[in-house]
Give the backbone structure.
Amino acid sequence: MFDKKLIKNFDFLILILISLLVGFGLIGIGVAMREPVQDDEYRLFDMIGNFNLHYVKLHLLWFGVGLVAMLVVLSVDYHLFAEMSPYIYWTVVAMLLYVFFRGHIAGNARSWISFGSFYMQPSEFAKISMIISLAKAIAKKKDEGEGLNSIKDLLPLLGRLVIPLALIIDQPDFGTAMVFIAIFFGMIFVAGISYKLLLGTIGAGVAAVPLMWYGLLSDTQKNRILVFLNPGMDPLGAGYHVIQSIIAIGSGRIWGKGILTDNTLSQLNYVPAKNTDFIFSVTVEALGFVGGAIIICLYLCLILRTIYLATKAKDNFGSFLVIGVVSMMVFHIFENIGMTIGLMPITGIPLPFMSYGGSSMITNMIAYGLVLNVGMRRQKINF
């Protein structure tokens, strides 16, 4: 059981922000999965009855499972995760290896383990294992008074990154691979990596771009990048999705078309992956610029509050755990919303807490369980 001090340190604001974002996700999923109207003469009860609530209920179910997972994470001191990090890391690697050999294929990617009608995506949980493993390694260096000033200092961290990253790239899932890279760079940047070493690492990454372009990227992935640079180059082909997403967002105007509006672009299937990757487009079409602005403000408040807890952690391990979660969240939010408005290439990265998906929801809830765990066990009580 939690003692009174831990409960007093619990950050209810973060839980409220997450719950509000889940609420917006429920609205978006409900609107997206609503059946198009076949008859112009519809009454209110007919309009309400036209909603398909199957995915709404499942989204609520995954949120409930996520809350239970968060409670489990909160129930133990977060330092236990540092001790268990090798077991967590290699368990996730084993799951990724299973996907490599026998994973379920969908959308030209082998990324899932099937359990009957349910599917689990191990690459989502790999993000948590990566954050814990890197936080432990970086904190150990900081506690020993060492820095990240040479390749020798960086190699142990790169070693933790390479194995899961290679397995995820092979699926292929370059969107999730980019999240791993964002987590890595976010954590080593805050750790105080030498700017020369950082620039050298970035330079090596840039130099590897031709290799990735000609050796790793499929034609579909190349087209996504080219369309990102110029959506109009193939408006009826590769550029169709992003163009329809932008049109849907713009059609919402200031106040949106409303939740009960019939035959919106999303309901007529002009918007792709409308309950997952493009949930922001659907929600803004329904709730307008005002709704979209509120969602972005909620994410901004969540990120700022998370950073605040990182500054209040009682030790380096706790601080870097939270920084890893922040790095993951910032990239997810920026990439997902950016791709819906044509500012980023389409990668299939879900929008945290809003996009439908059990693995994504549970992973994000566990991640914030770690954040709240660090906040509850901080040295000083600050309000």
Remarks:
- The CA atoms of residues 171 and 273 lie 20 Å apart.
- The chain has one domain: 4-376.
- The longest strand covers residues 109-115.
- The chain has a mean pLDDT of 84.
